[in-house]
Design goal:
Low-confidence stretches of chain B: 1-26
Largest interface: A-B, 70 and 60 residues
Strand content of chain A: under 5%
Distance between the termini of chain A: 43 Å
Largest sheet of chain B: 11 strands, mixed
Order of helices and strands of chain A: HHHHHHHHHHHHHHH
Radius of gyration of chain B: 26 Å
Mean pLDDT of chain B: 90
Number of strands of chain B: 17
Oligomer: heterodimer
Helix content of chain A: over 70%
Number of helices of chain A: 15
Distance between the termini of chain B: 62 Å
Helix content of chain B: 25-40%
Number of strands of chain A: 0
Structural class of chain A: mainly alpha
Number of helices of chain B: 20
Shape of chain B: globular
Chain lengths: 362, 533
């Protein structure tokens, strides 16, 4: 799951519009429509998968020793004997009302469960993306400005490593070195037991994201402990997304540096850093936003292996656990949330892209 | 050179990243807190009348108590829990329990006979997965108010027929028979759930600890109760962290960030041997590994083939290598620790003997047989070993690897040839395994009695063995009862559609300063209140 390649770039260039705001509004409406259709498609696909997999949800509820009568009772209760289209209709209707169903395994509301796991993933993925961007973009620019040079090679190799080495292995090595040997960071988990109990029993939870919650509470010792726990997994995810971001930045930047307006700027005697970081970067930024958003969405899907190694109670491990327990409603619920995050981020990046696209400003 | 600017900046940022990583403060758990790492994602519910998974029952063992308890020192012996004495009437169907006085729940409410009767009734009325442990005595939601009654400090339990008293008592030591604070629980009832939703996040028991917080797939916190009837627990706080990865647990243990690691792999255990700061505590578990041979397949119904298979498995080779520390050789269906468990394991790898038996079978060799195995490293390792040794005696196994649930459905539908399976006892009485390995009243397809392993593999134990198994569960004399199970086990071991191979072993790794940890063996659960550090 974790090694899945990033989605391919789409052509994001569009002709300038006469009325920027009208176009923006159109874009949003179109985006919402796409969102609705995509989600319906997502619900349909997950629903079908949930029905065709050779796993009997009833068996996972009642256990091995149940009688046929007990199994039938549960089958009735879940509505599994209704016609397919009717089951799908009920599923969509409930999903629209924010009810993703009830987990077979725990009997709890899936929406509530997801709301508990998602903040942990969100916190990790956001920090990972920030790391990936802060390192990936300068590295890509550096490589683009000196193609074929030693620094280009280094960026390429480091990037390739991040992209091709198993996260599982990188995570363990990271723990072994930075936690086990050097003592620079704290170990797995989101907090030390002492601070975890503090967070739980004496502080107020606002968002479920410990960094934000502890800061809002002014509990800086908890905050510091949370930072020392999150920095390694976030750095690891940042490294993986950095590999992708630096690669794309390099290619965008090289493309821009070959343009005539760059030559003009250089001929005019403009300092090279200004040519790169102001003139070229403005145009690179447009496709780069989409790249970063996609990479962010990718991390939001939950990195199962990273979460396992670092004992991080996130969405990825939630979905995986549910899958192993044949808890299809929970798997589908988690998948829908990931889908919504993905589509929303795509839409937001489209909007930002509209806002920063210099061609749209005329 | 301006071009350097980008690189300098990137380097600066990278340096900044590393620089922000604060130094970890200390690598030692607080003195009054026990930090345990385990994989607790098996927990479905911690309502004691619903919990039926290892991690949940372990938790509840520390927050609740039962009327009577198993003596950890002597398998089969009982000691008082919340009841000070118990007896059975001459009709063999009426049990009375005298409740201890002066015990309180974590709410402060006194524990009474009313709570005890109400709790056992609640199990039957809620009718969750483990309820069968009590309903097998003829209790139903309709009759339970008459079958379980209380008066003064006495609880009376009536059964539908005369069972072996040890059978009834053993079942009452199971987690499902934990006594809850009925006043508190019912005060938190929502839509007639008898407090089920509330008990999934809270505890209301008489145990040595009270649940402070429970976060599924994350962990839980227990806090010591002062003035507990067992004597106060030694450690104030138990902090359980869900850490599924063995290598991660090892690292945390070595660093001193956790006190006990319960889910380490044999490789990790091997790795910490010789570390003076750590130690490993061995114990057994209740699971057994076995092969089920589908009797609908003619070759597998052949007694010579069955016997040949028992001699064509490298039991010791496996427990010395791939299963080291995880499983021990055990060829009887009752795990050690159970009343009636026997220790003799007569079979070992003997290719020549197995070959001779195959030659006597009258079959044209080699025979080809399907082998349904769950897609899991340990099981595949075992399957490969068996495939290898069977091939040497003329049995070619064709592996059919699939998801655990798929394999189980095949087994329940009698669609397998041979399948590799584990079985865990449901409650700490020998009947739990005897009633599934040695009992199958109706072997017809129409019976669809999937609850019996014997039925699943289409094996008819025969009238005599069925009768003996049913007689054992009614035998009043515990010693005689134990003997009967010994006999039943030998019959199943030597002449049945099952090939029993291993019993679960477990290894808990801990810091060297931890003592008094009790993992629970095959019949009991983990207790934290005995631990000191």
């Amino acid at each position: 799951m974790e090694r899945r390649p990033f989605p391919a770039m789409t052509d994001t260039s569009a002709p300038p519009s006469e009325n920027r705001y009208l176009r923006l509004a159109q874009q949003i409406v179109l985006g919402l429509l796409t969102l609705a259709i995509t989600l319906l498609g997502l619900l349909l696909v997950t629903f079908i998968i949930g029905r065709v997999v050779p796993i009997d949800p009833v068996l996972s509820i009642v256990g091995e020793r149940a009688t046929e009568a007990q199994m039938q009772a549960v089958r009735d209760q879940l509505g599994l004997d209704l016609p397919m289209w009717q089951q799908f209709w009920i599923y969509v209707r409930d999903a629209v009302h924010g009810d993703l169903g009830t987990s077979i395994r725990t009997g709890e509301s899936i929406s509530a469960e997801v709301a508990r796991y998602f903040p942990a993933t969100l916190e990790l993925a956001t920090l990972g993306t920030i790391f990936g961007t802060l390192v990936g973009v300068p590295a890509g620019v550096l490589a683009a400005t000196r193609p074929g040079s030693l620094s280009d090679q280094i960026v390429r190799v480091v990037g390739l490593m991040g992209y091709s080495m198993p996260v599982f292995w990188l995570g363990l090595i990271g723990l072994l070195v930075f936690y086990g040997q050097l003592d620079w960071v704290s170990g797995p988990g989101r907090l030390d037991p002492t601070y975890d109990m503090m967070m739980e029993f004496t502080l107020t939870s606002y968002t479920g994201m410990i960094l934000i919650d502890s800061a809002l509470n002014g509990a800086w010792d908890v905050f510091a402990n949370a930072v020392s726990h999150i920095i390694l997994p976030a750095g690891l995810l940042g490294y993986v997304s950095m590999a992708y971001i630096s690669r794309m930045t390099r290619s965008f930047m090289m493309n821009e540096l070959g343009q005539e307006y760059i030559t003009t700027a250089r001929v005019k005697g403009m300092p090279e850093w200004r040519v790169i970081w102001v003139h070229a970067m403005k145009n690179v930024l447009v496709p780069l936003i989409t790249v970063i958003a996609l990479s962010y969405a990718y991390l939001l899907e939950g990195s199962v292996l990273t979460e396992t190694i670092f004992a991080w109670p996130g969405l990825g491990s939630y979905i995986t656990d549910a899958l192993f327990a044949a808890d299809m409603p929970a798997v589908l619920g988690g998948t829908v949330v990931v889908g919504v995050a993905f589509v929303t981020l795509n839409m937001v990046s489209d909007i930002i892209y509209r806002l920063v696209d210099p061609r749209a400003r005329t | 050179m301006h071009l350097k600017h980008g690189f300098t900046r990137a380097a600066a940022i990278a340096a900044l990243m590393i620089g922000t990583a604060p130094i970890a403060l200390f690598a030692e758990t607080p003195a009054d807190t026990l930090v345990v790492a385990d994989a607790i994602d098996d927990i479905v519910s911690i309502d004691p009348h619903e919990a039926f998974e290892f991690s949940g029952v372990d938790l509840n063992n520390n927050t609740y108590d039962t009327l009577i308890e198993l003596d950890p020192a002597t398998p089969g012996d009982l000691v008082p829990g919340l009841a000070e004495s118990w007896s059975v009437a001459d009709d063999g169907m009426t049990y009375t329990f005298k409740i201890k006085s002066g015990i309180t729940f974590s709410s402060g409410n006194p524990m009474t006979a009313e709570d005890a009767a109400g709790s056992l009734r609640r199990v039957v009325k809620l009718n969750k997965t483990p309820a069968f442990i009590l309903t097998q005595f003829g209790l139903t939601p309709e009759n339970v108010d008459q079958m379980i009654t209380f008066e003064g400090d006495t609880v009376t339990l009536k059964t539908d027929k005369s069972y072996a008293p040890s059978f009834v008592y053993n079942c009452l030591t199971a987690g499902v028979a934990n006594i809850v604070d009925m006043k508190t629980v019912m005060a938190n009832e929502v839509e007639g759930d008898m407090g089920n939703a509330w008990l999934k996040a809270n505890s209301a028991g008489t145990g040595a600890y009270v649940l402070k917080s429970f976060k599924p797939n994350e962990g839980y916190v227990l806090e010591r109760r002062e003035g507990h009837w067992r004597g106060d627990a030694k450690l104030k706080t138990i902090f359980m962290q869900h850490i599924p990865e063995g290598a991660t647990q090892r690292l945390l243990l070595e660093k001193g960030d956790i006190d006990i690691a319960r889910e380490m792999t044999p490789t990790d255990i091997e790795g910490i041997m010789g570390n003076p700061d750590l130690k490993v505590q061995e114990d057994v578990g209740g699971q057994v590994y076995y092969l089920a041979l589908n009797q609908k397949k003619t070759e597998l119904a052949n007694p010579k083939v069955q016997e040949a298979m028992r001699w064509a498995i490298d039991y010791k080779g496996m427990t010395d290598s791939i299963l080291k520390g995880q499983w021990v050789v055990h060829q009887n269906f009752l795990p050690l620790g159970f009343l009636g468990a026997i220790e003799d394991d007569p079979y070992s790898l003997d290719i020549e003997k197995a070959k001779a038996l195959m030659a006597e079978s009258g079959l044209t060799l080699p025979i080809e047989i399907g082998f349904t195995v769950r897609n899991n490293q340990e099981r595949l390792d075992i399957a490969t070993s068996i495939q290898n040794t069977f091939a040497q005696v003329g049995i070619n196994l064709v592996l059919d690897v699939g998801d655990g649930k798929q394999g189980l459905e095949k087994y329940r539908g009698r669609q397998h040839d041979i399948t590799l399976q584990t079985w865990g006892p449901d409650y700490p009485d020998p009947h739990t395994n005897a009633s599934t390995f040695a009992l199958n009243p109706d072997n017809s397809d129409a019976a669809n009695a999937t609850g019996y392993l014997a039925w699943r593999t289409a094996w008819d134990p025969g009238a005599d063995l069925n009768a003996e198994t049913l007689a054992a569960v009614e035998e009043k004399d515990s010693a005689k009862r134990a003997e009967m199970y010994g006999d039943i086990q030998r019959k199943v071991r030597d002449n049945s559609a099952f090939v029993l191979m291993f019993q679960q072993a477990r290894q808990d790794a801990m810091r060297a300063n931890i003592s008094g940890f009790y993992a629970g063996g095959a019949t009991d659960s983990t207790s934290y209140w005995t631990i000191t550090k």
